Amino acid sequence: LPRLVREFVAQNNTSQIKHVIQILSQEFALSQHPHSRKGGLIGLAACSIALGKDSGLYLKELIEPVLTCFNDADSRLRYYACEALYNIVKVARGSVLPHFNVLFDGLSKLAADPDPNVKSGSELLDRLLKDIVTESNQFDLVGFIPLLRERIYSNNQYARQFIISWILVLESVPDINLLDYLPEILDGLFQILGDNSKEIRKMCEVALGEFLKEIKKNPSSVKFAEMANILVIHCQASDDLIQLTAMCWMREFIQLAGRVMLPYSSGILTAVLPCLSYDDRKKNIKEVANVCNQSLMKLVIPEDDDVDEAKQSMTLPAEPASEESLSKPEAVSGGESLFAWPSVCCNSLFLVPVSFLCSSERIPVTLNLDGIVQVLDCHLHDTSIGMMTRIAVLKWLYHLYIKTPRKMFRHTDSLFPILLRTLSDESDEVILKDLEVLAEIASSPAGQTEGHGPSDGPDARSSQVELHVPVKASQLSSSGTKGLECSPSTPTMNSYFYKFMINLLKRFSSERKLLEMRGAFIIRQLCLLLNAENIFHSMADILLREEDLKFASTMVHTLNTILLTSSELFQLRNQLKDLKTQESRNLFCCLYRSWCHNPVTTVSLCFLTQNYKHAYDLIQKFGDLEVTVDFLTEVDKLVQLIECPIFTYLRLQLLDVKNNPYLIKALYGLLMLLPQSSAFQLLSHRLQCVPNPELMQTADGAKPSAGSKRSAASNIDYTELLQHFEKVQNKHLEARHQRAGRGEQLERRVVL
Question: Which GO biological-process labels does this protein carry (predicted)?
């Protein structure tokens, strides 16, 4: 046969050559008889050897019958087919590349062959073909990728090993740029990474590592956006190796691609946030996820808040920006929608990019705030998530309110209820972050609406002393400014501040355990984050109209304890102690009216503000009140407070007996109210130290104290305040009688 073929080649008789190949194919290789098929395969291989370099002209006719025999049921015949194809390819070398896809398809099937001889033969052929591809510069990668993409999803271990080996070979060839087609096969590679075989997992890990090295070297040619969602999916894999590898890729993508990754922020956060609460068993994943989270957060910039303005400037003629246009609010007013629960979905992975103008050039902006907020809101509603995830969510919300305040305030009404609920969290760290977000909402100039202050909302009426709400264009333009330059009487705040105070008190009222366990902690932190004067002013104004008198009394007691003992309120205490300004006197009057819900706290407020005569007048009224154990306990606590450093100035004023007679009378009044207890002994010993006024006289004679001068000039109507105190206490007395009556009725029902 070889001699015959050589003669035809010498004669250039192509028709006879094709005739010989056809007979070998049709009558032998494709015969029904197995021995004939074996003979046909040997004949085709011999024919190819005889053709030599001219075999490339007849490769289709030579290869097709051999590949058909790859599917033969006889393992020996499959081995002969493998051997025949090896000889054909060895002779043709680079000429077989146009037929590479069919050869690869056939080899991928033989790689999973159960017969070891066939598998061994296929491996020899595989190595030969890899050598040919490596040597050649004519490999058709574009035509091969669809086949590779299809075969990469095979579940057979040997087929997977075969696929990975080819990917490693193609990646190593300098002239073949497989990186351009990585989006086509990346998902399949991550699927293979989860194989049960350690060897295959290791090979796949090496392949992915090589691709990542190439990406770091040539980031400008990488199609980051096309692979982002693939990584998002595998970052949520249950397999630790897949998740860690995908997370490492995501970290590099965010750092290399930058804002290109922003359209996929919601998907990335869906994958990354739960990982932040992993324990030490998944420490590596947690650390990488944390880097991803931090890097993604840095991509959000203040210019993202100006997208709408930039788009408008492209469609509308440019006009000079006036102060009125800058201060025009974009946030939706709260009203009843403040308590509406959002319907959220955490699966929004594909976001539509928009664009904006930054400096002099137009660059793409791909931040879709709606998708990000939906994911964050979804995680806050999920009670099963870990503490670190909740903290990260709140950090994101705070960051977004700082960087994109105007856009974020469109979502405030839907976020507000869950942020209030989060105040009941078990973790102090979560509550601190939650308070930071709420404080930013309440103080950001971007949240200013036309209807602001106490009159905004169904539960809020106009207060006697309106809160100061400055709104300036300069404040709107700088989202990071919190009005630090403002005096305590004119802090920066917006319409959400008063709503926040109303809803916070509602939460304390409905969840008394929260008030008892965390109430003081929450209010103290708010005094650090916001303006303490406004917090106390607004809460006092709200409590003045509180229908639940028992809660009002408890809340006033809590606020009073914070006011007298917290280091955060040092400045406010000094402001009230002197009452030098009209603002401080207005604040005192506002606090006093609400403090009347609790008689003892009212006296302590008078002691703090050095209104000793009024304190004495109040104590005189105590004889008309119902003296209970709780009442005496509060008097006991007040005596303990008088001995604290806060009231040092009060104790020193006892030296000036002549100018502070009502202070001494008030203290004696408290002493007369107390039973023979430790507090009685404590106050009695203190009053015994009051000096004889005759011994304390000086040559200059008695001079009125600063407190007396201040009280005389304060223009406060103490008679009206005393009447208000009596009115409030009468309400409390009626409420106690009603509760007692209901209790008696309940006892009768139980007896009956």
Answer: phosphatidylinositol biosynthetic process
Torsion of CA 313, 314, 316, 318, to 10 degrees: 50
Domain boundaries, the chain: 1-136, 369-447, 598-692+715-751
Q: Which CATH superfamily is domain 1-136 in?
A: Leucine-rich Repeat Variant (1.25.10.10)
Could you read off the pLDDT of 309-360 as tens digits, one per residue?
A: 444 333 333 333 333 332 333 333 333 333 233 333 344 333 333 333 233 3
Gap between the Cα atoms of 553 and 676, Å rounded: 26
DSSP string, 95-139: GGGGGHHHHHHHHHHHTT-S-HHHHHHHHHHHHHHHHHHHH-S--
d(CA 69, CA 67): 5
DSSP label at residue 357? E
Domain at 369-447, CATH from 1.25.10, 1.10.10, 2.40.50, 1.10.357: 1.25.10
pTM over 0.85: no
b/e for 340-364, b at 16 or more Cβ within 10 A?
eeeebebebbebeebebbeeeeeee
Return d(Cα 11, Cα 4) in angstroms, integer. Answer: 11
- Tell me the CA end-to-end span of the chain in Å, nearest whole number: 118
The two three-digit tokens of residue 415, written as one number: 């976020």
194: exposed, middle or buried (C-beta count within 10 Å: 0-12, 13-18, 19+)? middle
Tens of pLDDT, residues 614-660 = 999 999 988 888 888 888 999 999 999 999 988 999 999 998 888 88
The DSSP code sequence of 227-258 is HHHHHHHHTT-SSHHHHHHHHHHHHHHHHHHG
DSSP string, 543-572: HTT-S-HHHHHHHHHHHHHHHHH-GGGHHH
Distance CA 452, CA 534 (A): 14
E strands in 295-374: 354-358, 361-365
d(CA 306, CA 303): 5
